[in-house]
Amino acid sequence: MRKAFWIVSILAATLCVQAEAHAQDTASVTGVVTDTTGAVIPGASVRLENPATSVAYNATTNSAGSYTIANIAPGPGYKLTITREGFRPVEITGIYLNIDAVRTQNVKMSVGTTTETVQVSASAENVTLNTTDATVGNNFEVPMLNELPIQDRDSPAALFYQQPGVTLGGAVTGARTDQSNVTLDGLEMNDEATGQFGVIVGNAPVDSVQEFRGVT
């Protein structure tokens, strides 16, 4: 069964509705490639791939040694490979790319031959500091969703109240209850007939959700 990605965007002001209504159902990764002295490495080849789906994304570091890959299907199990002539290739496995979030993955390369590969696991580095925009939010991944103490698991709307600052009445960090937007895989799921917080169309069991993100 295909699991879905849910996003609920909590809007802080009415003027933000136009800009924030288009929540993203993709992920991004960015970072800087340097050597052991901290000097940036331009022209390095960056390859991000998901062995489970055989989908790959490619990029090259610019003059500042930085790279960015956008519009990535979110999920676990990604592998990042960085190569550059004169340096040992670096492989970072176990990368989890969260929905509607930009992951910062910096890489340090050491001088060597291409036959020597440095392998690193990122399984314990799922939480990174968001320095790309001003949004504040939390990602709930598959293990967290399964372990959450939710009594009614018939609708993903039950996940909204797991966010800090969300009241049972639907007020979020002091905002009005009608200042929210819910998307499923990029499609709006708001129930316009009622206009109530937490009332959505296309309900599905909580256990069918792959990842949930709440953004303020």
Would you mind describing this structure in some detail?
- The strands form three sheets. A five-stranded mixed beta sheet has the order 11-14-1-12-13. A five-stranded mixed beta sheet has the order 4-3-6-7-10, with no helix packed on it.
- The chain has two helices and 14 strands; from the N terminus they run βαββββββββββαβββ.
- Helix content is 5%, strand content 37%.
- A hairpin with a 6-residue loop joins strand 6 and strand 7.
> Which structural class do the helices and strands define?
mainly beta
Q: Could you estimate the helical fraction of the residues in percent?
A: under 10%
Shape type: elongated
Q: In sequence order, what are the helices and strands, one letter per element?
A: EHEEEEEEEEEEHEEE
State Rg. 20 Å
